[in-house]
Amino acid sequence: MKHTILAGLLFYTTCAFSAGFFIPPSPFFPDTTTKTAEEETVIEDNPSADYAPYLVTDIMNTAKDNQPVTLSGKIIQRIKTGVYLFRDNSGDIQVYFDADELPKQGMHLNIPAAITGEVDRQPKQPVRVDADNIVFIF
């Protein structure tokens, strides 16, 4: 009796796999399911969903307030608590980190890093980036 049940289960799962009815999730391949029109609208309407790469000069000259950005370069100096000077090949800009956004291992100076955040433009203040995340590239 057990052999019959196991044989039937094996037959069923083999047929299901070969017909494509059951495809196990794979850590090696991304999810290829299509999004509904409603999901696509939410993604397109959310400006913070896309942190486009920018140079410091682009941020200083053309970026708008609260525009999401990604910077690649190095933190070169601590200005004061939570405020650091960031440098890429085009120039320098101040980057502000809230206390909960600072890396637990501490801030590493002169190490390549990628920062995501939003542009902060205030009257009579230097343009800066309010950082959401920093990743050090060792």
TrEMBL record:
SUPFAM superfamilies for this protein: Hypothetical protein YgiW
Keywords: Signal
The keyword Signal is annotated on this UniProt entry: yes
Protein's name according to its UniProt entry: Uncharacterized protein
InterPro entries attached to this UniProt entry: BOBF_sf, CarO-like
Organism field: invertebrate metagenome
Pfam families: BOF
High-level lineage: unclassified sequences, metagenomes, organismal metagenomes
